[in-house]
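[recover] target loaded
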């Protein structure tokens, strides 16, 4: 049998007692007849008392379970553990293996009931001290976060930390590094495009030699983390609504979401690719300027959430006109099917009437309607239609983004007032006169919100007329499969194919 002298120290501090000194105290507790027994010093340096996975401690417990130890001596009780639950379990295991436990500073041992009782009492205070320390640190962290302090961690790419003073407290804030921010904005703009996946984005950056300026290299994981980070966004009402919809606790007041500042998300996340529960997360605006427009940032979030890759689909067996082509004779839709390989070794797609192939109620057009020919014809018709609309749209007055954001903030503020009013009414305590005033206030808030929504719809209509058509006309010349399909869905009601193969387009615009 042997005696273990156990010492533990969490971190090196000038005022803390060293492990060697702890062992000296432990040796002083040896009885004269024990000095000739086998003494095993065990040291855990750099381990917290809350961590039971300590190499030395686990070695000691293994020897105890093997029946090789009959006594353990420590400098103080908290060298073994600062957790009462853990310590009681350890003490119980000591008893099961007939191992005595002695503390040099508390001057008692577990060989007596009194010593065992005192040990448990002291451990209650040790755990209370540890819990209090953790709570103080947690509360201080939360308070500093709510004040808009950057809370550390790995410095986000595109920024450097510079000294500053916030609320008379010395701290550090994020300051943009222009060359890196330029890369960040480029990454967002490229990924926001419909046909760019994370892998495609990585390939583009590598091909263009746009490596990180800090000497590292891009990976899809790094790009995904960068794209998800609200540090970069110009947080406005749309960002507020996005996180509110995901159940995030928003610390900063809604009036601060003016599209100027970046934001920080902190807390323990439950969010997984298949779960959008961010209820344990908190969002706070910081003091640095955001660098990515909210609409681009949100486009990227939608793509990341759907976890899908968008690629050019010119080889797709379907058509970007799918769902729009109708048979005049029976009124059923016409879908694309693959024909036989022609002399050039290519497979031509053609439209087939489902009334003929599925319902057996129609003979369909008497001529073959090749998909490529119909797509080219409709493509030219859309281009002509867009050119007609473009001139009118450009003359429309565009609404200022700041005005739209301001209205959205006002709507949110009214909704919050409505919620507060409902909560107050549900709590009760209203007499008839106060209840009448509350109902009057509710009606006023409802009317205010209606007016704001009407104005917002007007501004959206102006922007849609002034921007959407112009942007479509500009990009139509090089539109990919997905963009063509989106434009066709907006502009075309249906394409009617007559029995003789003639085509009629019914427009939505």
């Amino acid at each position: 049998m042997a005696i273990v002298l156990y010492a533990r120290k969490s971190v090196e501090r000038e005022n803390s007692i060293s492990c060697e000194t702890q062992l000296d105290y432990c040796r002083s507790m040896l009885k004269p007849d024990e000095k000739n027994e086998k003494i095993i010093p065990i040291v855990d340096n750099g381990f917290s008392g809350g961590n039971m996975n300590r190499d030395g401690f686990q070695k000691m417990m293994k020897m105890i379970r093997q029946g090789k130890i009959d006594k353990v001596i420590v400098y103080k009780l908290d060298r073994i553990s600062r957790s009462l639950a853990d310590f009681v379990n350890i003490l119980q295991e000591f008893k099961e293996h007939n191992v005595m436990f002695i503390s040099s500073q508390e001057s008692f041992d577990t060989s007596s009931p009194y010593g065992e009782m005192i040990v448990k009492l002291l451990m209650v205070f040790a755990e209370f001290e540890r819990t209090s320390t953790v709570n103080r640190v947690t509360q201080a962290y939360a308070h500093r976060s709510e004040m808009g302090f950057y809370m550390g961690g790995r410095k986000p790419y595109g920024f450097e930390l510079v000294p500053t003073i916030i609320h008379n407290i010395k701290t550090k804030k994020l300051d943009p590094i222009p060359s890196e921010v330029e890369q960040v904005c480029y990454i967002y703009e490229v990924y926001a495009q419909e046909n760019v996946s994370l892998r495609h984005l990585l390939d583009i950056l590598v091909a263009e030699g746009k490596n990180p300026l800090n000497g590292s290299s891009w990976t899809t994981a790094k790009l995904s983390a960068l794209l998800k980070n609200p540090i970069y966004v110009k947080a406005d009402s749309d960002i507020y609504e996005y996180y509110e919809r995901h159940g995030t606790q928003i610390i900063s007041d809604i009036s601060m979401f003016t599209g100027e500042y970046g934001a920080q998300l902190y807390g323990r996340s439950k969010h997984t690719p298949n779960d959008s529960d961010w209820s344990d997360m908190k969002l706070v605006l910081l003091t640095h300027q955001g660098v990515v427009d909210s609409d681009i940032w949100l486009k990227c979030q939608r793509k990341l959430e759907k976890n899908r890759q968008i690629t050019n689909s010119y080889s797709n067996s379907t058509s970007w006109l799918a769902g729009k082509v109708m048979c005049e004779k029976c009124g059923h839709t016409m879908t694309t099917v693959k024909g036989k390989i022609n002399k050039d070794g290519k497979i031509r797609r053609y439209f087939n009437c489902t009334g003929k192939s599925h319902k057996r109620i129609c003979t369909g057009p008497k001529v073959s309607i090749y998909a490529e020919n119909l797509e080219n014809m409709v493509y030219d018709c859309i281009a002509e239609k867009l050119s007609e609309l473009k001139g009118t749209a450009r003359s429309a007055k565009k609404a200022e983004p700041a005005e739209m954001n301001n209205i959205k903030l006002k709507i949110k503020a009214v909704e919050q007032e409505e919620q507060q009013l409902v909560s107050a009414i549900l709590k009760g305590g209203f007499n008839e006169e106060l209840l009448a005033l509350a109902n009057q206030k509710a009606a006023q808030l409802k009317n205010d919100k209606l007016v704001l929504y009407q104005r917002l719809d007007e501004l959206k209509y102006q922007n849609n007329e002034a921007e959407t058509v112009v942007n479509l006309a500009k990009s139509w010349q090089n539109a990919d499969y997905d963009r063509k399909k989106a434009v066709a869905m907006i502009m075309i009601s249906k394409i009617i194919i007559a029995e003789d193969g003639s085509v009629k387009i019914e427009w939505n615009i």
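[recover] notes: Residues 159-306 form a domain with the Hect, E3 ligase catalytic domain fold fold (CATH 3.90.1750).
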